[in-house]
Structure formats: C-alpha cells, structure tokens
Write a structure and sequence with these properties.
Number of domains: 1
Number of strands: 0
Distance between the termini: 34 Å
Helix content: over 70%
Number of helices: 9
Strand content: under 5%
Radius of gyration: 18 Å
Length: 211
C-alpha cells in the first residue's frame, strides 16, 4: 500500500528508537515526576506537535534544506541549543522556589510546558535529518505516492512515540506519588534535569550535520 515496505519492521524499529533516552523523554519524565501526570502529558503533546511539523516538512522536502545547507542547520541548532540552555536555567530557578515544584500546574504553566516540548523538538535539526534518513528506507523507490507514504509512516511513528511518552509520564508521576517525594527531593530532580538539559543544549550547539 502506497509503496510502503517492511511495515512491521518499521514499527519495531521505531519503538526501539523511542526507547532511547533523550531531551524529549527527560522533559516528560521530569515534568511528570515533579508536577504530575498532566504536566508530563502536556509536555508529550508539545513534543508530538513538533514531530508533526518535522514529518510534514520532510514529506514536502523542506527538511532536506537542513541536511544540505550548513547555514540553515547552524541557525536551527543554535536556536534549539540556546532554548535548551534557557530551559535549564528556568528549571534551576524553579528548584529554588518552594512553591513551584509542589503545586499542580495551572493553565498558564501547562501552556509553558507545552511550548517547552514543542520548541525543544521542532528546533532540533537532528530530528529532521533523522526522518529524512530513516523513513525513506521503508518506501519503495517505484512508489507513486512517496510523500503520502512518508506522512503515513511518520504518523505511525509519532503515535507510537506518544504512547511511550505517556507511559513515561504515568510511571514517573506514579513513582513520585508512591514515594511521597518531599520538597528536597523534588528540588534535586529539577536541578538534575536542569543539568542534563544544559548538557543536551551544549551538545546541540556543537553538533554538525554528519554527527
């Protein structure tokens, strides 16, 4: 159908790749543990929205610009890396506020968390290049509907990613509740997340198209 080949291999490979920890899963786990399942879920939805942008951009050929243009790649990676570091600073500041970590997120905070998930994903050029490199392997060269096949496979990948993301949110929030995480430990979690986001941000800033 649509020239899609080895569909189940694609599904299994996609699930395996989603299991690898990264900034996205860290954000979901951190928000789920410190602010509950809803916060983790909203972070996941923001990430999923960013992934949709990558999917459609890749299907339309826009992501190819990031893979071939050093300037475009550099601009996007600097925006993404700078925002990850900005988030790291924000998380550290949150950890110094007694109220922030312990109160369930309000609507304004949920909007901020959604934006965090969206921006960290959509401004990561590595995600765009990943889709360009991974998905076409499962589309026949003779297919007359390559763009549509790409979108279908991308949506399948994203749905599986969202399922896994919500599992992370649920598990992290549940463990946090069962352990009755105290304020001190919540601060430690936020500061640990801040440190890791800082590392991810610096890594993205020095990333190259071929790395």
């Amino acid at each position: 159908m649509l020239g899609i080949e080895n569909f189940w291999l694609f599904v299994i490979s996609g699930i395996t790749l989603n299991l690898i920890p990264g900034p996205d899963s860290l954000l979901i786990a951190g928000r789920g543990a410190s602010q509950g399942f809803k916060a983790g879920s909203v972070a996941a939805l923001g990430i999923g929205t960013g992934t949709l942008i990558h999917i459609f951009a890749a299907a339309l050929g826009l992501s190819a610009i990031l893979a071939t243009s050093a300037t475009a790649f550099t601009v996007v990676k600097w925006i993404g890396g700078a925002y990850l570091i900005y988030m790291a600073v924000g998380m550290y500041r949150d950890s110094t506020s007694p109220a922030t970590a312990s109160i369930a997120p309000k609507r304004a905070m949920l909007k901020r968390i959604y934006a965090e998930g969206f921006i960290t994903n959509v401004f990561n050029p590595k995600v765009a290049i990943f889709f360009l490199a991974f998905v076409p392997q499962f589309i026949s060269a003779s297919s007359d509907n390559k763009a549509l096949a790409f979108i279908v496979l991308g949506l399948v990948f994203n749905i599986n990613a969202m399922i896994w993301a919500h599992i992370i949110a649920f598990v992290s929030s549940t463990i946090s509740q069962k352990l009755k995480v105290n304020q001190t430990l919540r601060k430690v979690l936020l500061r640990l997340s801040a440190g890791l986001f800082g590392v991810f941000g610096l890594r993205l800033l020095v990333a190259t198209q071929n790395s």
